[in-house]
Amino acid sequence: MLLINLLYLLFASTFILAKNVLTYGSPLLIISIRMLLAGSMLLAYSYLTHGKQLIQDLKKAYLLLALVGLFHIYGAYVLEFWSLEYISAAQTALIFNLSPFITALLERVFYNHRLSLIQIIALIIGFAAMLPTINTGTSNQWFLYNSTAHIALVGAVLCSCIGWLLIKKIVKDHHVHLTTINGFSMIIGGLLSCVTGNIISLFNPTWKIFSSTNWPALIGYILVLVMVSNIICYNLYGHLLKKYSATLLAMAGFTCPMFTALLQWIFQGSIPTATFWASAFISGCAIYIFYWNEVKKN
């Protein structure tokens, strides 16, 4: 269990790192560099380990791989990083606790995956737990009415969930290695971010998308993000899947917002409110009930 806690502590650190790196560059610049760098590294590793099989994998699932890049990388990361400019790292991590519930709804719609009554109740509790924390901070109105940043963050969670379902389909139907999927999709996401930045610059030359206030700090943060998120967490998660069930690892994910809040307090001096902690605890209970019932059904 120590390694599981370490995994989500590392995941939590990526929210803090992402919040800090935004001080030195725009979301599109950061995503472009990070994803092109990480994607190139993963594809190089995939080629070294699988050889010509890499080319065959890309040929038989290129359209689905491109969609993963569009949703899982480009859509999810652009919306998340833009939202992070206005929302705290801890609250961002908390809203990502909606992932299992949104995934369940998508599976219900597209795959007719049945939900039990207990899971439906857990899903409602999980969504309701977020509502007290999702506002602009200056009004009691819910974010759906007055906060585009929160709407964008929920959109990031939705894009991420769609991406995971696409990855599941590629692995199941086409047997493509996960390293290849991640590498290619990151390249696609990075390229799309570059194209988007250039288009914005054409229409608004004063908005310098590809400039930085401190290039050494920007590159340093990006390299740390790639190392922690794309290399260490990716491999550690794969290692833990050999010992623990995917369900247990998914349930343990409720600790990520709490670790993020702790790191936010230590490194940024920002203490989350009691409302945040209550929402994190309730959403964690809802996730536990949801997955416990899933295990019981199976």
UniProtKB/TrEMBL annotation:
It comes from the Bacteria. The keyword Methyltransferase does not apply. Keywords: Cell membrane, Membrane, Transmembrane, Transmembrane helix. It is a multi-pass membrane protein. GO terms for cellular component: plasma membrane. The keyword Cell division does not apply. InterPro entries: AA-Vitamin_Transporters, EamA_dom, EmrE-like. This is EamA domain-containing protein. It comes from candidate division TM6 bacterium JCVI TM6SC1. The lineage of its organism: Bacteria, Candidatus Babelota, Vermiphilus.
